[in-house]
Amino acid sequence: MKKWLLALCCWFPLAAMASEALTLDWIDLVPEKERAQFNANQMPILDHSGGAGQQSMIGSVRTELDGSKVKIPGFVIPLEGDDKQVTEFLLVPYFGACIHVPPPPPNQIVYVKFPQGAPIQQLWDVVYVVGTLKTQPVSHELAEVGYLLEGNAIEDYDDM
Q1: Are 119 and 144 in contact (CB under 8 A)?
Q2: N or C: which end of the chain has fewer CB within 10 A?
Q3: Predicted confidence band at 124 (pLDDT cuts at 50, 70, 90)?
Q4: What is the pLDDT of residue 160?
């Protein structure tokens, strides 16, 4: 009986840890050897020498993150849904990305599919999106995307 209780006590903390999402920062989506291409604010180094801004295609994705349950903060660019909820959106690291300025590189954009729908009022500020990350490229008219996230939760952003 003692062995069974000991095994049970040891298993529950592991099960809880396995279900927790890995909290990522945007730089975590960039392979370590390519991080020199980003500045101290984790933003891609851009060339502002004139002309219309094009999406930088620098960098690749971190394939070892494929299938991971993650939690990542970002700004939402709605793609599908209605005036009450959004079911598909781009998650980007800074306000205005893909809309007012050139899109970030593909490894700095996450295409989120959120089948249950995220309430639109939650999406005006930065939020955390929780779900399963896939290293699957998505081509969209706004940008080329390096990651796909099957979202299952939206959480208020807390930078503490």
Answers
A1: no
A2: C
A3: confident
A4: 62
